[in-house]
Amino acid sequence: MVIDPRCFSGGLEALEAFFKHCPADLGCAYVVIQHLSPDYKSIMDELLARYTAMPVVMVKEGMQPEANTIYLIPAGTTITLESKGFKVVQKTPHQFSLPIDIFLHSAARLFKQKAITLIFSGTGSDGSQGALDIHREGGFVIAQEPDEAKFDGMPRSVINTGIVDVILKAAEMPGQVSSFIQQTETGLIKHKVPETHALSAPHDDMQDIVSLLQQYSHINFHEYKPATIERRIERRMQVQHVQSLKSYLEILLQNEAELAMLVNEILIPVTSFFRDTEVWEMLAAEVLPELVKRAEAQQGIRCWVAGISTGEEAYSLTMLLLEACEQQQKFLPIKIFATDINPRNIEAAATGHFDKSLVNTIPTSRLEKFFDQTDAGYQVKPILRQSIVFARHNLLTDAPFTRMDIVLCRNVLIYFAQDAQQRVLSRLQFAVNQGGYLLLGSSESLGNDGSDFSTVSQKLKLFRREGISQPGEFTLLAAQPKPLLSNRSRKLAQLSKQQLSESHLEISKNLLIQHFAPPSLLVDSEGRVSQFFGGVQDFIRVKQGAADLTLAKLLPEKLIPVATALLYKARKEQRPFLSEPVLVDALHQSTLLMVQVLPVESLPKDSFYLVSLIESVTKTTAQLGYVHLDEEITERMSLLETELQATRENLQATIEELETANEELQATNEELMASNEELQSANEELQSVNEELNTVNAEYHEKVLAMQRTNADLDTMSRASGIATVFLDEKLVIRRYTHDLKKLFKIRDSDLGRPIDEIVHLLDYPQWQEHLQQTLQSGLGLEQEVTAENGHIYLVRMLPYQVKLTDAKGLVVSFVDITALKVSADLQTVINALPEHIAVLDATGAIQLVNRAWQQFAKANGDPELRHTGLGSNYLSVCQQAKDETAVKAAAGLKAVIEGSSPQFTLVYPCHSPQEPRWFVMHVKSMEHPKFSAVVSHFNITAYVEANSYEVPIV
User: Fold this and answer.
1) CATH 3.40.50.180 is right for the domain spanning 5-193
2) Can you point out the beta strands (E) in 420-576?
3) pLDDT for the residue numbered 498
4) Based on CB atoms within 10 Å of each CB, which residue in 79, 296, 404, 762 is the most buried?
5) pLDDT value at position 624?
6) Considering the domain 277-465 in this protein, what is its CATH number?
7) 239-242-248 Cα angle (round to 5)
8) Is 319 helix (H, G, I), strand (E, B) or coil?
9) 651 and 633 in contact (C-beta within 8 Å)?
10) Any idea which fold 517-627 has?
11) Rounded mean pLDDT of 756-768?
12) Which 8-state DSSP code applies to residue 124?
């Protein structure tokens, strides 16, 4: 059986609630990770054992996890899981660490999609990075509701990562865990598409789901590997508790929030600072210093990091480049294009803020140099942030960046189908300059189209371009129409015929524009391009520098002044304009083009213009204003020069003010940095101590509650027993006593803390103080029978005790009233001396007391084990069950005396033995007693009958 690790962190109350509702037979191993001080002996095993039938054990080195067992982390250690079992490592005392992240990382690596982590109440962000590892491998992540958590730091931190599958109260989690296990074992998607196939033919629910995702996100998930899509869909089906793809499709059609969750599931953020240390060490030692050395001062260094997730790799590369520039004392402009398809990731990366758990892989020196600490984590400094441009970019459809010194695209290609991988690789290779580098993920390669690249490190997947990138190595794809759902899904979504017609109309328009419209660009009033139409890719030129979708960066050099001037005129007069023909080189041939600018009717504050490139115009219209380029260009240049001169003057004044302010800020910054370093160190220590104190406090609180319950049990037991008891310390001072002690001692509640010899008692016990001292000193118990003034006899029992882990001693003295026992013993002695067979019965006819003669006769005459005539047996029932006439008469008479209808009863009857004839007289006499009801005696009158020689009548 595969055992799933269950990892918990946080408050004791949440753990108790979980295990109280958790079945003991789920077949899982449970690992509880807490922040514990190395100097503290935890009692968590005792506390959890009260709420579960599962065994609770402390982890030891090499121990193999077993099903239905709870494992606890030893104090002062970190633990991990390996194939050989648990590995226990001692921590450096009082040093800040992240034991939850450490364990979860190992659990994710070993158990992959079978791992589940539950994050409970706790402070800080420990567990967030480990939960990302669990999620990345396909495992399940559950967080406690922050409003329920006593400390919401850890739950909120992991929720903010965006990878939490379910947010529940602690008591509700066992049901979700059980459901996940059952669905994992049975599987939800029965007919899986093989890895070599693509999700292309729209024939089933899976295709409809993928098409719906494409409509929602504008991402073509048909080009992703089927296994990736299926695994993420299956995870969301488990969260939604549905068993079929059809049911899940209905949920997606009705719930846009679930659509967003599924998109985020597929676009899983997988990254960390300096991930795969060996890769970054090679970049820092060999690659980046070379790039800095050969870079020109004006051009600087250009990098592209594709698929950045939340930005850690982009920031890691920037840090290493800045350090390389500093080492060579060569300060260059650095421009890093960081792209991702998920706008949510781009937004998070651009903020530059990270939790403490996310920066634990950054050395302290770099952390202080490139980050500012905040209350919630760390913020990147401007020197780091200003070098990076974050942008949304689709590797499958968008044009690549160009002339890059190094391109990083790690562990992104593995999610694409084979054809899509080749297209993306073509774009990545085109982006790299001659002599530049391409770094891929550990499971990726250049494929069949990498002849222009040499291998720097096959192990680290680092390649260097030796040839020059040629145009045509990639093609700009025309805009693809949104995929349509199948008829079945359209019915579920209730799509109308009108919507279907509109979709076909949109497709037709796109085809018409593509084949018959001139190459055109839709721009705003500032010349920024919003949309491309027709075969515009034949005339676009991607230029060196920062990514910029403006006319000045996209059009050929000869068309830039023409288009700029016409746009200025059209914006000023709000009417169409057409330029003179201009000879332009396009696709290895010269083409005569005219530029036409048409204002688009729209709101005044939202003006757009259509810039069209028309080949060899043969006719013009009167409506178009024909423009003389020289005059317009001269007028436009004059206006721009005036604006530029004013801007320069303002800029110079601003620079002077900033320089003055910068000097003051620099001095202040140095002081703040020194203070910040001290506060950072102190804060980490305080956070660790705070979490340890919270854990200790919770355990002590539970221990106090347990002691209160024990005291309540003790008080109830003392009242129920009715035994007078007093507790004395080693100085014979009263610590505690029971209510019944007041019958023997004249004691009050205010006497607690007084010596026992000051309290007056009713016992005839001259050796009272002597025996107390003797018992205390010898450590041996003592018993003594004493008489009280009320005539009762008491058994005085003295027992010494010692408090564990201390030198404190004391005595427990109890007084048991044995008067009734003594009287009963005396009565038994008397009746044992009588020769008659005597038994004492209660009101039900049960035997309460017999003498020795009764027992001996019964054993010798058919009842050797005294089952029918011994103590506790019902003598009346025995007589009633017998069938002979004598027994019937005896039962009737006995019953009459017990019920009170007759004061006594006498019966003469024969009881012959094989050796001799015998006659007996049975006499029953009632008695007044709270416990006893009648006395039964049997007299042997055989000698009397034989001496008088007459027949005995039976009465």
Assistant:
1) yes
2) 432-440, 453-457, 462-465, 520-524, 529-533
3) 41
4) 404
5) 52
6) 3.40.50.150
7) 95
8) helix
9) no
10) Beta-Lactamase (3.30.450)
11) 88
12) S
Domains 5-193 and 722-817 equal at CATH topology level = no
The first and second tokens of residue 678, run together, are 């001290």
User: Angle at CA 781, nearest 5°, toward 779 and 784?
Assistant: 140
pLDDT at 56 over 70: yes
Interacting residues of 387 by C-beta distance below 8 A, sequence separation 6+:
318, 321, 322, 334, 335, 336
Q: State residue 718's pLDDT score.
A: 66
Beta strands at 69-72 and 56-58: parallel, antiparallel or unpaired: parallel
Whether residue 589 is predicted with pLDDT greater than 50 in this model: the reply is yes
Is residue 773 scored above 80 in pLDDT? yes
Residues 754 and 732: their CA atoms lie apart, in Å, by: 9
Assess whether pLDDT exceeds 50 at residue 834. yes
C-alpha closest to that of 304 among 560, 542, 551: 542
Q: Is the per-residue pLDDT at 602 higher than 80?
A: no
CA distance 461 to 278: 11
Q: Determine whether domain 827-948 maps to CATH 3.30.450.20.
A: yes
For 390, the 3-state DSSP assignment is: strand
Contact between 201 and 207 (Cβ < 8 Å): yes
The reply to whether the predicted model has a pTM over 0.85 is no
pLDDT of 496 > 50? The answer is no
Pick the CATH number of 722-817 from 3.90.550.10, 3.40.50.1110, 3.40.910.10, 3.30.450.20: 3.30.450.20
Count of helix runs (H) and strand runs (E) in the chain: 28, 37
Q: 582-586 and 589-600 as β-strands: parallel, antiparallel, unpaired?
A: antiparallel
Q: Report residue 406's pLDDT band, with 50, 70 and 90 as the boundaries.
A: very high
For the chain, the first-to-last Cα distance in angstroms comes to: 81
- 353-354: strand order across its sheet: 353-354, 378-380, 371-373
- Write the burial class of residue 431 (CB in 10 Å: 0-12 exposed, 13-18 middle, 19+ buried): buried
Q: How far, in whole angstroms, is CA 455 from its chain's centroid? A: 42
Instruction: Identify the residue whose tokens are 């008489």.
Output: 787
Beta-strand runs (E) in 576-661: 577-578, 582-586, 589-600, 608-615, 625-626
- Rounded CA-CA distance 286/216 in Å is 44
**Rounded Cα–Cα distance for residues 579 and 751 (Å):** 113
Q: Each residue of 498-534: b (16+ CB within 10 Å) or e?
A: eeeeeeeeeeeeeeebeeeebbbbebbeebebeebbb
Put residue 831 in one of left, alpha, beta given phi > 0 → left and psi -120 to 50 → alpha. Answer: alpha
> Where residue 7 falls among pLDDT bands split at 50, 70, 90?
very low
- Residue 127, sorted as left (phi over 0), alpha (psi -120 to 50) or beta, turns out to be left
CA 411 to mean position of chain CA atoms: 25
- Distance of alpha carbon 426 from alpha carbon 408, whole angstroms: 14
Q: Which amino acid is residue 484, in one-letter code?
A: L
Report the run of H or E that residue 895 belongs to, with start and end: helix 885-899
Residue 689 has pLDDT above 80, yes or no: no
196 pLDDT tier (thresholds 50, 70, 90): very low
How is residue 686 annotated by DSSP? H
Across the range 225-247, mean pLDDT stands at 82
Average pLDDT across the chain, whole number: 79
Do 62 and 86 touch, CB atoms closer than 8 A? Answer: yes
The SS3 of residue 474 is coil
Number of residues that this document lists for the chain: 955
CA distance 93 to 77: 9
Domain extents for the chain? Answer: 5-193, 277-465, 517-627, 722-817, 827-948
The string over 823-841, giving b where at least 16 C-beta atoms fall within 10 Å of a residue's C-beta and e elsewhere, is eeeeeeeebeeeebbbbbb
**The residue type at 471:** P
pLDDT in tens, 82-108: 888 899 888 776 666 788 888 888 888
pLDDT at residue 407 above 90? yes
Q: What percent of the chain has pLDDT over 90?
A: 6
Structure tokens at 32: 């509880």
pLDDT band of 479, cuts 50, 70, 90: very low
